């Protein structure tokens, strides 16, 4: 008797992969944060992950990132039954996956890491490449499920080998994407016909399955996402973090990540990653100006998630009053409601960029509530941004009074 399958995460890939199993006779129930997705892909729906786990022998997850995976496991705490198998097919960091393995082992749950490589089109055909690691006997037991989803299935070892392999492949995908964008920009600058050059590349020594999958998108400038800019940016963050932890420099990956950051700053995060081919060249100062705009908008909105993304872990924030905050204490002021910015005016902004460092000088007029008490601040401010692994982050702010009431 075939085990019941519970599928968690019915986004671009999950919504295509789960119905394949149902179509060949597996009993599949799905769950997604958006309830309409389960109905939209034609599988039965569970109201919660806990409800899903209660009726499934095998759980399969396709979710966005480490944070979503941690949240999933926390939500399933106490609901996972010993003897259940979890197959995670997401792109996650080896560290997050290893921590999950410990939790699942204590719960008596078998765990396969099975990230996938390929497009939604290949997923619909069951032709994905699957990188798998985990106990070999569990891999063999679940092979009938895997072979419905992938054409090329490779077992790599008993632990986090599949996670590393997926990041290795995605570092190459990121590099090909960046190189292709540059090559097309050069061709167009020299007056070559864009569609003809795209066909030429697709049939040249530089041809690859990735380029073949993007030919029509590039010709039509169709940026409907198969894999979005934000998704590949997240993957390159994982690549660069893994390389840093191993003492390895990856300058090409860092440069590609920097271009993706420019695309995100333009609001292109939801576009297909091939949209990098349409990204205009920006001076670093323009990127810094956009990041400063984003930072001040986040301060006014109390947007902690954006501040967390923009501020470096080493941040030192020196206020015009003389007080100093770390990143943690600065964000805590927003989270607790102790600090609330009501209005900020900026004038006289100047930006100086030197390599991977940027200095921003400006005059500020700030209306703020501190502990519920209104305060007006006039200050001269200096902000220092640093680019590491292709991403700009704020490392220091220092303000000095320029008149105060």
From TrEMBL:
SUPFAM superfamilies: 6-phosphogluconate dehydrogenase C-terminal domain-like, NAD(P)-binding Rossmann-fold domains, NTF2-like
Domain DUF4440 as annotated: residue spans: 288-394
Family annotation (InterPro entries): 6-PGluconate_DH-like_C_sf, 6PGD_dom2, 6PGDH_NADP-bd, DUF4440, HIBADH-like_NADP-bd, HIBADH-related_NP60_sf, NAD(P)-bd_dom_sf, NTF2-like_dom_sf
Signal peptide: none
Domain (3-hydroxyisobutyrate dehydrogenase-like NAD-binding): residue spans on this chain: 163-278
Domain 6-phosphogluconate dehydrogenase NADP-binding: 5-157
Domain of life: Bacteria
PANTHER family registered for this protein in UniProt: CYTOKINE-LIKE NUCLEAR FACTOR N-PAC, OXIDOREDUCTASE GLYR1-RELATED
Name assigned to this protein: NAD-binding protein
Upper classification of the organism: Bacteria, Pseudomonadati, Pseudomonadota, Alphaproteobacteria, Rhodospirillales
């Amino acid at each position: 008797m075939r085990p019941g399958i519970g599928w968690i995460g019915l986004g671009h890939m999950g919504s295509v992969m789960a119905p394949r199993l149902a179509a060949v006779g597996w009993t599949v129930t799905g769950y997604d944060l958006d309830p309409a997705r389960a109905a939209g892909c034609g599988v039965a729906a569970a109201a919660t992950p806990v409800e899903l786990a209660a009726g499934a022998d095998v759980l399969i997850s396709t979710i966005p990132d480490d944070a979503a995976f941690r949240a999933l496991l926390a939500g399933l705490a106490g609901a996972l039954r010993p003897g259940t198998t979890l197959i995670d097919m997401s792109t996650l960091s080896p560290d997050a996956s290893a921590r999950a393995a410990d939790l699942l082992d204590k719960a008596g749950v078998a765990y396969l890491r099975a990230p996938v490589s390929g497009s939604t089109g290949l997923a619909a055909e069951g032709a994905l490449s699957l990188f798998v690691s985990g106990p070999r006997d569990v891999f063999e037991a679940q092979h009938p499920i895997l072979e419905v989803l992938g054409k090329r299935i490779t077992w790599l070892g008993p632990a986090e080998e599949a996670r590393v392999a997926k990041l290795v492949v995605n570092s190459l995908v990121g590099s090909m994407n960046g190189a292709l964008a540059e090559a097309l920009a050069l061709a167009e600058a020299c007056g070559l016909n864009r569609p003809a050059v795209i066909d030429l590349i697709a049939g040249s020594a530089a041809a690859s399955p990735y380029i073949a999958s993007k030919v029509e998108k590039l010709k039509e400038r169709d940026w409907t996402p198969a894999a979005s800019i934000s998704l590949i940016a997240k993957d390159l963050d994982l690549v660069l973090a893994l390389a840093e932890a191993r003492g390895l420099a990856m300058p090409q990956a860092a440069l590609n990540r920097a271009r993706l950051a420019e695309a995100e700053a333009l609001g292109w995060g939801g576009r297909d990653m091939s949209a990098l081919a349409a990204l205009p060249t920006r001076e670093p100062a323009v990127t810094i100006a956009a990041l400063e705009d984003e930072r001040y908008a986040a301060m006014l909105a109390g947007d902690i998630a954006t501040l967390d993304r923009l501020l470096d872990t080493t941040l030192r924030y020196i206020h015009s009053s003389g007080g100093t905050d770390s990143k943690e204490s600065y964000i805590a002021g927003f989270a607790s409601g102790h600090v609330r910015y009501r209005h900020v005016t900026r004038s006289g902004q100047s930006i100086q960029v030197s390599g991977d460092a940027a200095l921003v000088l400006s005059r500020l007029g700030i209306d703020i509530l501190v502990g519920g008490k209104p305060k007006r601040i006039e200050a001269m401010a200096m902000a220092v941004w640093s680019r590491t692994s292709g991403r700009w982050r704020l490392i220091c702010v220092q303000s000095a009074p320029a008149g105060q009431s």
